[in-house]
Design brief:
The protein is of the alpha/beta class. It has helices spanning 5-8, 157-170, 175-185, 190-197, 239-250, 272-285, 300-309, 323-330, 337-349, 368-380, 395-405, 414-424; strands at residues 19-23, 29-36, 38-41, 44-47, 54-55, 61-64, 68-74, 79-82, 95-100, 105-107, 110-111, 113-115, 131-133, 136-139, 141-143, 201-203, 257-260, 290-295, 313-318, 353-360, 385-390, 429-431. Helix 2 (157-170) packs antiparallel against helix 3 (175-185) and helix 6 (272-285) packs parallel to helix 7 (300-309).
């Protein structure tokens, strides 16, 4: 028996809807006539309406989801269906199609699907819903940052290679510079490319180790079920190597940012013995540029020393401000969520800029229980900016893990969540990228 809409969640009816997009066994993506696209948030599924979507942003990528069946809305029968086979090729499977959206866009609805028995884990991407409307792919996404810091159209590979050659001449023996070459040329890392293009923010990866075992860590996984996106840095650069790269960037980029804590490393607090003197070297040469650290903020005493050395800002990674949900994702080893909070308090006392790297996913982040605690957290602690980041993790499995950790009610909707935060905290910055100190408009 086909599942009914009552079995699968509330369906909002709307005449202006996007067509369902699926893929066949050959990987060909097409619109499925007679069906509307469906978005998912936790266990709730809704028809994808025109007012909820934007054209897929440049740089977005459609993806076929293996070992899974698409959920679509049958327009004739007015019901949700799990599509087991290709109606144009009976006996052959259909696959869901999701979109990995460009930086700066918050996913407001996930690709709706059901797993086949024995399905493996999805790779570490976010999986936005997609549909077909106006002869193009559309997706439910909210733009929170229009800066073109990671716009691939502005990252000509020839110019990146020229920058690599220039930096090789400038700092031939610098191992950190060589590591960033691999980031830019092998992994296609936009942050690495920006260093060689002399733009925006330069990465300063330093740490081999971490005290968290994050479910979605892109550089280290304990098993082979989830593949890593890239290799972790295998050495700790010297203070001199770090300072040389940072000063080169600051010296040639207006409103430059240099950041410790990248996807190709552990947590930078574990390299503080190299980072602290490096920061002092940088600040002995110049007061220009913003020195930032992306961190889990687990070692408040270490972080305090770095602030005293000249660290300007931190971006603290959180999937939740509820301890049980935080622990279920980060799986901390030797620290507690209270340590993270203490670090944020110390940053406020030191008059440093604090961003939250808020890893969000529809169905969890916009649940009433999560919203209530998050708003209270923003009331209580010195946070100047939220970087709304899509969580790159298997959506259904993440929801199951979180629902075991904490109660989750009917989702409010990501658009409603952003509107609620904006209304209650009008001076709070929204964005995606680490801002330079020249743009800290809400900093007091």
């Amino acid at each position: 028996m086909k599942p009914t809409s009552e079995d699968m969640g509330y369906v909002r009816k709307n005449d202006n809807i996007a067509g369902a997009v699926v893929a066949n066994a050959d990987g060909e993506i097409f619109e499925l006539e007679g069906y509307a696209a469906v978005a998912m948030a936790g266990k709730t599924r809704t028809v994808l309406a025109t007012e909820d979507v934007v054209p897929m942003p440049h740089g977005g990528e459609p993806m076929l989801l293996p070992d899974r069946r698409p959920v679509a809305y049958n327009l004739a029968e007015e019901r949700l269906e799990v599509l087991a086979e290709n109606p144009y090729d009976p006996g052959q499977p259909l696959f869901p199609v999701a979109v990995f959206n460009s930086p700066g866009y918050v996913v407001a609805g996930l690709c709706a699907y059901e797993e086949n028995q024995g399905a493996g884990w999805l790779p570490l991407f976010s999986y936005a819903a997609t549909g077909w409307l106006g002869n193009r792919l559309v997706t439910p996404a909210i733009c929170v940052d229009t800066e073109k810091r990671q716009d691939l159209r502005l990252m000509d590979i020839g110019k990146v290679q020229a920058g690599v050659a220039r930096m090789r001449r400038k700092m031939p023996g610098n191992r950190l510079r060589a590591h960033l070459e691999k980031c830019a040329l092998v992994y296609g890392c936009p942050a690495g490319k920006n260093f060689f293009l002399r733009r925006f923010e330069a990465p300063l990866p330093t740490s081999k180790t971490c005290n968290a075992a994050c479910l979605g860590c892109i550089s280290l996984q304990s098993g082979d079920e989830i593949p890593c996106s890239q290799n972790r840095i295998s050495f700790v650069p010297t203070p001199e190597e770090i300072a040389e790269v940072a000063l080169a960037h600051i010296g040639q980029v207006r409103n430059a940012v240099v950041s410790f804590g990248q996807g190709c490393e552990g947590d930078p607090l574990f390299a503080a013995k190299a980072i602290e003197p490096a920061i002092r070297m940088i600040r002995a040469e110049t007061s220009e540029g913003t020195i930032n650290m992306n961190t889990n903020a687990s070692l408040p005493d270490v972080l305090e020393r770095l602030f005293d050395a000249g660290l300007d800002s931190i971006r603290v990674s959180l999937n939740s401000v509820r301890k049980n949900c935080y622990d279920a994702y980060y799986r901390p080893r030797g620290y507690t969520f209270e340590d993270v909070v203490k670090s944020i308090v110390i940053a406020g006392e030191k008059n440093r800029f604090v961003s939250l790297n808020y890893l969000n996913q529809p169905g969890f982040t916009d649940s009433p229980e999560e919203i209530e605690v998050f708003l209270a957290f923003l009331d209580d602690y010195p946070v100047h900016m939220i970087q709304w980041r899509n969580l790159n993790f298997d959506p259904l499995r993440y929801y199951d893990i979180m629902s075991e950790a904490c109660p989750l009610g009917e989702p409010t909707g990501m658009r409603n969540l952003l509107a609620m935060v904006r209304e209650r905290f009008p001076s709070l910055m929204f964005g995606y990228f680490n801002p330079p100190k020249e743009k800290w408009s809400s900093f007091t």
